[in-house]
Amino acid sequence: MPKLVADEFRPTLGEELAPAPRGVKVALAAIVALIVAAVIVAAAHHETKASGTHIVRSSPIAFNLRSTGSLHVAKAQSGELLRLEGAGSPADELVVKPLRLPPYRGNVVGILPIAAAQEIAALRARFPSLELVSEGKARVNAVAGYSIVFRVSRSPRRYGRVIMLPLDQPGARAGVTLELYSSPHAGGGADVASQVGSQGALKTPFRSFRFGTTGP
Q1: How much is the average pLDDT of 5-10?
Q2: Helix (H, G, I), strand (E, B) or coil at 208
């Protein structure tokens, strides 16, 4: 049988440990596995932190996110804090708008469904063919919010997701509304409404969104 390891590279770790007790071998194997896992996690964290373009807005609400792929910063329209658009038509879009909740008592999760009903009515006025898919509580990087998922139109197929995200502080009435729109396309767009923000070019900016100016 041919040698798998040349003589100049011997003895191998296995050969060195051959005389050691079984308990020592198991312990060393566990240590090696932990080291490998730590390296993988560190590499993944570095890649997430370093990938894409870091976009920061400091006022009137401080937030930041990262954008990758075909998305680019487009001219914000009236009432928008940030607009990202992709290539193609219809293009993927992510829009950040200011959120202002009415006065309320108790936890913010109690007022969000009421505010969401008004948001849905406004969406129906904008998109006459809108079909509501789902709504309910949501979290974006541990910040509690409310998600509305819908079909914008059937021809062409276009889907949307709106996340109402108040600031993570007691009694907060200010925050942002994230609007995401996507269609099926070769660049990895949404094939169904539930995929908006979870794949394609919108995935990174949506998942990296954070209040404040410090990114992940």
Answers
A1: 54
A2: helix
